[in-house]
Amino acid sequence: MTARKIIGKAHLFLGLSSGLIVFIVAITGCLYAFKDEIQNATQPYRFVAKQDKQFLHPSQIQHIAEQALPGKHIHAVMYQGETHAAKAIFYSGPKAGNYYYFVYVNQYTGEVLKVRNEYKTFFRFVLDGHFYLWLPHDLGHVVVASATLVFLTMVISGIVLWWPRNKAGRKQRFSIKLNAKWRRKNYDMHNVLGFYVASLAIVFAVTGSVWGFEWFKKAYYGAITGGRTMIKYKEPASKDAVMATTQLPAIDRIWLQLQKDVPANGTMEVHIPETDSSSIAVNINPDPTTYWKTDYRYFDQNSLRELSVNHVWGRFKDAKGGDKLMRMNYDIHVGAVLGLPGKLLAFFASLIIASMPITGTLIWWGRRKKSKPALHAKTIANRTMIRKGQNLQPAPMRSE
User: pTM for this one?
Assistant: First the structure.
């Protein structure tokens, strides 16, 4: 058996065994591509009218949100500009309740606009399918991550199978024969569209695998940084002695101090310290359409002294080339790094990828059905010859 045939059989086996998973992951990724745009168009409580007033302080929004959602643990307060409502984020992991809420508050008036359970939204349902196939998270995570690596292997093997053996076959590989029978059109769709989307499929698979396996993330980081070891995310601790305080809470003082660093359309997320030794983490994003340029800053909650970190999630100006690429991982995965054209590209690429298991299965099924009549005809011919006294099988050996 030639190497090409071995690759072909491996491509077929991997495709049939992982096709359903690839379809679900791709179609949910397709649906998720324009999440923000769809939510902005359908959820008016996300917006407020601009007023000639100062924003309420983080501690004030925290107090208002806690009254609207009593008994829950607040994680952060996020300001999203002058015309987007402020958002209080409540989160707790499986060990402490397992909930995730947004409380939208008018930052000018303090009016609670919406209390939303993020685990009950449509796009959370889509995301759970994309990440976990709606299975228990520990199981679904491994299944999807493994299928993503299988998919990466399939894309590479598909490129090998697509590659024309001679110059005469090259033209055929780049176009779909629209006037052909449906089997031929289906074959062309699988091969031609598969080739055009292959480079993006590899990007999706690699960036997805960064979240899938810790070993893959470390290897990827080492590859893009020239062999550096990835340092695990950790917030620095507050170790300074208690300073003389004013009546203004520490999170408010930090928020006021950083106002000058937030662009007009930027966002600021102020994290509430979890413990007495936790730092105050503040995320400032100059471009809310992406995440990779975000400044991740940390302050001692007692002295308000800014603390440094040695991992990727620190000040943007301190990030090196490989660190910036690592920060881009989500924005690359969803196409946002290229703006609206990138999201459109990701949308249509995901749609085509979702069609690959379908067209591939139809090719396999068509060949399987086509081979059955030929096998049946050969069987009838053999039986006819046997009835005429011609034994096609070698005579059995007799022991003397």
Answer: 0.86
